[in-house]
Amino acid sequence: MEQTFFMIKPDGTRRNLVGEIISRIEKKGLEIKAMKMMQISNRLAKKHYAEHIDKPFFSDLKEFITSGPVVAMVVEGPGAIKIVRRMMGQTDPAESTPGSIRGDYALSIDRNVVHGSDSPESAEREIDLFFSEDEII
Ligand code: RTP
Ligand code: MG
């Protein structure tokens, strides 16, 4: 069994897409092992998006991801990391197939509704950043 970190971003909570998105995860057969609604601090944003800290879009990304509540999850299933990434669609919603979360609910790259870990290393790092061991069922 593989675990991934999955998050509904502030635009998703603001637009009341939480139920819709969680429903897709559940219907796919993936298991939610941990979940919380929280507001990301500047400090956590820098850690979570450390790989992008020197990119030109970083300050906008940090501003956005800290702008409202997110719903953070640990999602488990066989091949969960790749499966969740495929369910999300491409980073740029304009490139995302209809039927994917971003393909169905997003219009722009800087408001793309969800995050999912992109590799086993990211999954381990991100789960550890957002959850303590006793929060994971
Ligand atoms: P995420 O980490 O949020 O799940 O998104 P991702 O893996 O699909 O994309 P990533 O390359 O990790 O980028 C993180 C977020 O930064 C914003 N971004 N903007 N303007 C741009 O060229 C650009 N590139 C990336 C996006 O909001 C992306 O989700
Ligand atoms: Mg990423």
TrEMBL record:
Signal peptide: none
Protein's cellular compartments: Cytoplasm
Cofactor: Mg(2+)
GO molecular function: ATP binding; metal ion binding; nucleoside diphosphate kinase activity
Gene3D superfamilies in alphabetical order: Nucleoside diphosphate kinase-like domain
Alphabetized SUPFAM superfamilies for the sequence: Nucleoside diphosphate kinase, NDK (SSF54919)
Residues of the active site: H115
Superkingdom of source: Bacteria
Enzyme class, UniProt record, top EC level: transferase
Catalytic activity: a 2'-deoxyribonucleoside 5'-diphosphate + ATP = a 2'-deoxyribonucleoside 5'-triphosphate + ADP; a ribonucleoside 5'-diphosphate + ATP = a ribonucleoside 5'-triphosphate + ADP
GO CC, alphabetical: cytoplasm
Subunit structure: Homotetramer.
Function: Major role in the synthesis of nucleoside triphosphates other than ATP. The ATP gamma phosphate is transferred to the NDP beta phosphate via a ping-pong mechanism, using a phosphorylated active-site intermediate.
Similarity section: Belongs to the NDK family.
Name of the molecule in the record: Nucleoside diphosphate kinase
Organism: Acetohalobium arabaticum (strain ATCC 49924 / DSM 5501 / Z-7288)
